[in-house]
Structure formats: C-alpha cells, structure tokens
C-alpha cells in the first residue's frame, strides 16, 4: 500500500467484488446479498421505538453519490443556509453548504467526478453501510433517526481518491456540530493544528470514529489519538485480517470481510467491501443507533456500555492479546445495559481485556473476576468520575500477589491504578452507584531493540536495527532523522542487509515526513542495497516489520557529500 499523509484504505475490487458491483432491480437487489457482517453486531429491531433523537453523522471521505438509494433518504439539510443564493447565510465560512461541502474544490458539489465513479466510490460505501445499520434497526423509519453530512476532501482533478484534506474536512464538520464524525482513513503524524482540531471535537462532545489502517502495522492517526474510537477489522472467523493494523489504541473490532455496501457507479449498484474502512462504518452505524436510543447518554457512558457488552475475541487471536480492544460490539446487549444498569451483573464477561465493573444499589453482584487467559504485564484501573461533582466509591482490588483499595478518599496520581499479573478480583464496598474501568497492559516486545524517533546531526555514526547478534523484533517501528549541514547531502551505504523479503522494510525518505512524494527507496531481503544519496540535507529512515518471520537485521553508514 502506498504511504500517504492522509489516505483512504483502498478497497481493491477483485473479480468477485466487481461481480457484485452491478445494478439489480426490484426485490432481487435485496435478497441477492448476504448481511453476515451486520448480523455479527446483533442489531435489534427498533421499529416500535418512540425515541425522537435524530443522530447527525458527518462523513469525511472522497465523494458521495447522493442519489444512491441507500443515501438519498438520509442526506443532511442545513436549514440555516439558502440554496443557490451564493451567500454564506449561516456565516460559517462556506457558501451554499446546504448538504455538505467539497473542502478540496471549495464548492458544494460532493458528487464523484463524472467518469471516475470507480475511483471515487469510498464515501458512498461508508455512508451506505451506516445507513444500512439504521435501516436494519428502524426499517422504513430509519431516515427519522439518521442524518448524514457528506464532506468531500479530494479534489476532482485527482486521479486517485486518497484523502488529502481529511483534517480540513473534520474542522468543517465541527462547525456544523454533528454527533459523530466518521473518518474511514488514516496515516501520517499529527501536526499541532491537527491535534487541536481533534481536541476541539472532543471538547464539543463530538465523537470521532477512526480507522486503524490497512498496512500490517501499528494503529495510525487519527484513530491513534486518545479522543478517537479506534476500529480494526476481522474476518468471518473473528480473526484479525492480515493487513489490518492493531495496537493498544484499538477500542473495537468489526467485520472487514465482505460487507454489503452501495457503490457510486449507479443509484442501485452494490458490492462487497473489505478492510478497516468497512469496519469503521459498521461501528459508526451501531454507535449512532445507541445514541439515538439514549440521547442523554454521554460519550463516556456509551463507550463503557459498548466495552462491557462486547464479545471478546482473545481466543481466536492469541497473538494479539491487548491489541484488539474489547472485541465485537453487541448492540442488543449494549442497549439493554444503558436502559437497565442493574442488568450489568448478567452481562459481564470475565475474559474481557478492556472493560468495566458496575455497581448499582439494586445489584446483588459485588465481586468481579478478570481472567485474561494469557500472560500480561498487568492492568490499569480507573474509577469513572463523570457522573457527579463529588463522586463516592470504594473498590477492593486483589490477586495472589497484592491487594489495595481504590477509594474516593485516597486518589492516586492521575486517578489511575495499576495491578500486575494476568488476573485479579474486585469487590465493591460502595454505597452509591459507581463504575471501575480497566484496560490490559501489554509487554511491547516491538520496542526491545529500537523505538521512537532518534535525531542525528553528526557525521559518521553507524545506524542499525539495534538487535546486534539477535534477530530484530516483530511489529517493530523505528525512525532515524539524519540532518547534514546546509549545502550538504547525505550518502548512505548499507553494510549488512537481512530482513524478511517484501515484508520487513527499511524505508528512506527525503526530509522528515513519510509522504509518498518523499520516498527515495525501500529495501528488504538478503541482498545489500545500492548506495543512495539524498536530494536535500535531511533524510528519514523508517524500519517497519510485520508479526511473522524475523532475521539478523541491517546496518548502514553514512557521510556528508557536496
């Protein structure tokens, strides 16, 4: 996959996928497809629901076929804007943004460029998956509960629909104050301004849902940001899809395997979508439904309820413990918990690696046992403080090695407590309703030999993967920024090269950023690479490995040249 600072997880339409990207008519277009990915989420029938909340979901993506039958009933209308008068009526800085906006071309046309529907199909796909979730819950009344703001962030002149103005799109979305912003794209390091945009959304109570990424690596931004719900993708057997990214920032997993979706090529075109983009859309759908049914619930409450009731997938993914969040969301159980907190004692699953313990006055359950089922460093525990100005709680935490109390009278630094080991027991002594959240701490072997970014401005320092006589680590991600004096360039010569071919790469970028135009070279395998020279006085080396085979690694030397 190409490296871009903001890229959509491209869905490669195989022959089978193209077979389903066809126009069907009448009833045939419904029965012809499988809804297995949706069934996995346990979306209940809510046709008789009396809740009046209409959830607004802003989708920041490439383009949208607003006329597609799965989108047209749900498109947002900005009542503060008068269509076609060429005036910014609502004074938000965007003219005639009645139904979304094209941030890249600065107009209100969010449709795919004519003739490029097979490239600019991603936004239609994401929106149609979200609307399908609502339709399965509310039937013909679905449009009363969902409104979609389409935000186009790729210029019409682009031949490839990689999202380039994603954060500008998020900034625009915030100006309309939606409930949810769906970002089914990822990549790049956050700038200070981009961090500020994500923080602003959080401060306004807007929930952003982001994609982990599809390049075998660690979780990418914006999903990596602590205010964003991070989603990765699993297959039909509940196993992590090989290309899907994973890590401690993941909150949930959803299917990224043959998800029925609308295609931009025709108003009745459908296909099977794959990857973390489809998974993000599925979660955005069920999260939106939970919000529609619980309009007074905070983001904290919704997230905790989903985590508590999700289906753990640790056993199906033993190599990824602590890196797949709470597992698969179960909307039916989530709604039950939000409606009747006393049901928490019947819904608890002690294999959960990222979850909560509840106590209410009417609950008989006062003890919780967490059994991780694998060897972990320990758990972080944090009491929920969102309910009251002066919360009162008291939890006793213990295992075979230690015991301590978590109490509102004696708070720890940052209100986070740690217990070592792979299991522990909690008993509440609270007299008032309270909740204790927890998350597994995973030993990160990926950082065994190298980690983070090192900055070098001296000549002649030898650089290597750091493993010396040992093999380098799986899931490794390390960077070196080398800066030469102004007017000089950098010559690189590899001394050793031994990595898993076509899997574990040493990337070389001109400058400091992992942008596609900056790529000078990427090397893997057992042959010594050729000598290369930078274009400017600065280069970035990026070492990335997968979770399979490791080797002896690599070593290089460099020097300044005129």
Rg, rounded, reads 25 Å
Strand order of the largest sheet: 4-5-3-6-8-9-10
Low-confidence stretches: 1-32
CATH arch. level architecture of the largest domain: 3-Layer(aba) Sandwich
Which CATH C-level class of the largest domain is it? Alpha Beta
The structural class is: alpha+beta
CATH level-3 fold name of the largest domain: Rossmann fold
Number of strands: 29
- Overall body shape: globular
Distance between the termini: 34 Å
Number of domains: 3
- Fourth-tier CATH superfamily name of the largest domain: Peptidase S8/S53 domain
Alpha plus pi helix count: 10
Approximately how much helix is present in the residues?
Answer: 10-25%
β-strand amount: 25-35%
- Provide mean pLDDT, rounded: 89
Main beta-sheet annotation: 7 strands, parallel
Structural commentary:
This protein has 562 residues and is α+β, with helices and mostly antiparallel strands. The chain folds into three domains: 7-295, 3-Layer(aba) Sandwich (Rossmann fold), CATH 3.40.50.200; 348-441, Sandwich (Jelly Rolls), CATH 2.60.120; 445-561, Spermadhesin, CUB domain (Jelly Rolls, Sandwich), CATH 2.60.120.290. The chain is 17% helix and 27% strand. The protein is built from ten helices and 29 strands. It has helices spanning 15-20, 28-31, 36-39, 122-138, 166-175, 192-203, 276-293, 299-309, 331-339, 344-347, and strands at residues 7-8, 22-23, 55-61, 101-102, 146-152, 180-183, 185-186, 207-211, 228-234, 250-255, 259-262, 269-273, 354-359, 367-371, 378-383, 394-398, 403-407, 417-420, 423-428, 434-441, 452-456, 463-464, 477-483, 489-498, 505-510, 519-523, 532-533, 538-544, 553-561. It has a seven-stranded parallel sheet with strand order 4-5-3-6-8-9-10, with helices on both faces. Strands 21-23-28-25-26 form a five-stranded mixed sheet, with no helix packed on it. Strands 13-20-15-18 form a four-stranded antiparallel sheet. Helix 5 runs parallel beside helix 6 (192-203). The longest helix has 18 residues, at 276-293. It is globular and about 75 Å long. It starts with 6 loop residues before the first strand and ends with a strand.
């Amino acid at each position: 996959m190409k490296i871009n600072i903001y890229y959509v997880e491209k869905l490669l339409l195989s022959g089978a996928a193209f077979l389903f990207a066809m126009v069907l008519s009448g009833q045939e277009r419904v029965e012809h497809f499988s809804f297995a990915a949706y069934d996995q989420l346990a979306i209940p029938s809510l046709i008789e629901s009396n809740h009046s909340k209409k959830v607004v979901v802003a989708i920041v993506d490439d383009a949208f076929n607003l006329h597609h039958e799965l989108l047209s009933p749900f498109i947002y209308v900005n009542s503060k804007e008068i269509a076609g008068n060429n005036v910014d009526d609502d004074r938000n800085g965007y003219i005639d943004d009645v139904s979304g906006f094209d941030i890249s071309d600065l107009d209100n046309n969010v449709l795919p460029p004519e003739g490029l529907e097979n490239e600019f199909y991603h936004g239609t796909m994401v929106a149609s998956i979200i609307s399908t979730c609502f339709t399965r819950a509310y039937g013909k009344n679905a449009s009363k509960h969902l409104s979609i703001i389409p935000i186009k962030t790729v210029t019409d002149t682009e031949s490839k629909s990689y999202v380039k103005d994603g954060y500008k799109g998020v900034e625009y979305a915030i100006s309309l104050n939606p409930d949810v912003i769906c970002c089914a794209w990822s990549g790049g390091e956050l700038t200070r301004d981009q961090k500020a945009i994500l923080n602003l959304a959080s401060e306004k109570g807007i929930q952003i849902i982001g994609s982990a990424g599809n390049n075998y690596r660690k979780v990418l931004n914006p999903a990596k940001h602590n205010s964003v719900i991070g989603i990765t993708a699993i297959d039909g057997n509940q196993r992590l899809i090989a290309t899907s990214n994973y890590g401690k920032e993941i909150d949930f997993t959803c299917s990224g395997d043959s998800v029925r979706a609308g295609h931009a090529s025709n108003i009745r075109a459908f296909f099977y979508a794959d990857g973390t983009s489809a998974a993000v859309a599925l979660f955005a759908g069920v999260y939106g439904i939970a919000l529609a049914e619980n309009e007074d619930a905070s983001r904290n409450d919704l997230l905790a309820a989903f985590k508590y009731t999700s289906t753990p997938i640790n056993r199906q993914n033993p190599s990824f413990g602590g890196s797949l969040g709470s597992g698969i969301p179960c909307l039916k159980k989530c709604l039950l918990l939000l409606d009747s907190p006393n049901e928490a004692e019947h819904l608890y699953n002690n294999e959960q690696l990222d979850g909560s313990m509840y106590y209410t006055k009417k609950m008989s359950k006062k003890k919780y046992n967490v059994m991780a089922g694998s060897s972990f460093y320990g758990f972080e525990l944090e009491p929920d403080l969102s309910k009251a100005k002066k919360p009162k709680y008291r939890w006793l935490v213990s295992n075979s090695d230690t015991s301590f109390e978590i109490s509102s009278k004696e708070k720890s630094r940052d209100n986070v407590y740690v217990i070592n080991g792979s299991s522990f027991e909690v008993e509440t002594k609270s007299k008032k309703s309270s909740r204790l959240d927890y998350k597994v701490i995973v030993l990160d072997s990926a950082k065994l030999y190298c980690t983070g970014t090192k900055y070098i401005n001296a000549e002649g320092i030898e650089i290597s993967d750091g493993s010396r006589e040992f093999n380098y680590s799986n899931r490794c991600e390390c960077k070196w920024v080398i800066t030469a004096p102004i007017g000089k360039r950098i010559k690189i010569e590899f001394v050793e090269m031994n990595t898993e071919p076509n899997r574990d790469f040493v990337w070389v970028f001109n400058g400091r950023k992992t942008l596609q135009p900056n790529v000078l070279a990427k090397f893997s395998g057992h042959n010594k690479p050729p000598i290369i020279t930078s274009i400017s006085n600065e280069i970035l080396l990026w070492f990335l490995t997968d979770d399979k085979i490791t080797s002896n690694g690599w070593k290089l030397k460099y020097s300044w040249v005129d």
